[in-house]
Amino acid sequence: MQGLLWLLLPVAAFSGWLAARREQRRNRREPARRLAPDYFKGINYLLNEQPDKAIEVFIKMLEVDSETVETHLALGNLFRKRGEVDRAIAIHQNLIARTNLTDEERTLALLELGIDFMKSGLLDRAEGLFNQVLGSGMYTRQALSNLVDIYQQEQDWPRAIDYARRLETARGKSLRQMISHFYCEQAEEGLRAGDLRKARQHIQSAMDEDPRCVRASMLAAQVAQKDGDTELAIRHYERIEHQDEEFLPEAIEPLGRCYAALGRSAEFFEYLNQLASRHRGITPVLAVTEMVAQRDGVALAVEYLTAALRKRTSTRGLDRLIHYTLMHAEGKERENLQLLQEFTSKLLENKSVYRCNNCGFMGRLLHWQCPGCKRWNSVKPIHGIEGE
Ligand SMILES: [Zn+2]
User: Fold this and answer.
1) Residue predicted with more confidence, 72 or 308
2) From the CA of 355, how far away is ligand 1's center (Å)?
3) d(CA 323, CA 13)
4) Distance, CA 144 to ligand 1 centroid (Å)?
5) Gap between the Cα atoms of 371 and 363, Å rounded
6) Any idea where the domains of the chain sit in the sequence?
7) How many Cα neighbours within 13 Å face the side chain of 219?
8) Per-residue pLDDT tens digits for 63-97
9) How far away, in angstroms, is 188 Cα from ligand 1 center?
10) Which CATH architecture has domain 2-154?
């Protein structure tokens, strides 16, 4: 805080000096004394470590005119960035109260004040300001983008969709992926409430919006299962491979359950084998291994897994290989293997499974909206030696 105030001093001094000169011109017989007392009062507050009072004095000195509007805006933003939102609000409100601003300056100040309110969680007030900005016809994209953010925070999905479409037009850039997730959110609401008709409707809209939306396929499969149509659920899960290969691991476990429920495990085994040959990931390979172990015994499972691991390096694969080999190991070999397994399980312990392609956020849960950067559809299963 102190550092920032010292930076302000020259600006305040200059502005005070300008004010003093104007005053001087207006009344030559009464020379200006305004600068000195305020300026030194401010410095005294600073020296006494009373930055709150100091800032008040300096801001008062920094008269709003066409030359200092930008300084006020910059100052407000600086405070907001430092987390001192109350100060940012005071500065932006002070700016808006002036009558000598141009339309553009006033609109910009309204926009900034809206962002301040958003930061402090006063979403209703922020919403009102952004709508005012929209009415001015200036800074439309910024206002729309903030409104879409607000409606997401309020989980008002119909409005979020409405404003996202307007933002799409204003920007000339597709937001279909995000809009599709807004429909998925509503489909989930339907699923939670047991309203399958609502869920189906929104899933269809999500698919229309973005045919590659994996989440829509997963939701459609869940609805089909609630309907008792396991066959249809399988078709939805199997679509994921073609929508976004990176999400394939998500589909395998539920698919296994669906095939098992229909007593068609042999068919699933065939499908998994195809997946394992088409994709680099380890999840299909491990699923095949598991089935071989149950059907044909551990020795064949080990043989299959060893061959597969020659083509892809994977800690999870190695861990499973040790697990199966241990089943028939004895004596010194067993001890060595146990040591190795301790090592691989340590490597895998608490390992993040998902990562955001945009900000690098990592976690063990799949989030459709990144908790770090708030982007939609950017968190995906991690691939590579220690991941998928
Ligand atoms: Zn992120």
Assistant:
1) 308
2) 8
3) 75
4) 21
5) 10
6) 2-154, 263-349, 351-388
7) 29
8) 666 667 888 888 888 889 889 899 899 889 988 98
9) 22
10) Alpha Horseshoe (1.25)
Q: How far is the CA of 353 from the centre of ligand 1 (A)?
A: 14
What is the rounded average pLDDT for all residues in the chain?
A: 87
CATH number, span 351-388: 2.20.28
pLDDT band for position 29 (cuts 50, 70, 90): very low
| Ligand 1 midpoint to CA 253 (Å) | 26
2-154 and 351-388 in the same fold: no
How far does residue 60's CA lie from ligand 1's centre (Å)?
41
Q: How far is the CA of 258 from the centre of ligand 1 (A)?
A: 32
The CA 367 to ligand 1 mean position distance, Å, reads: 10
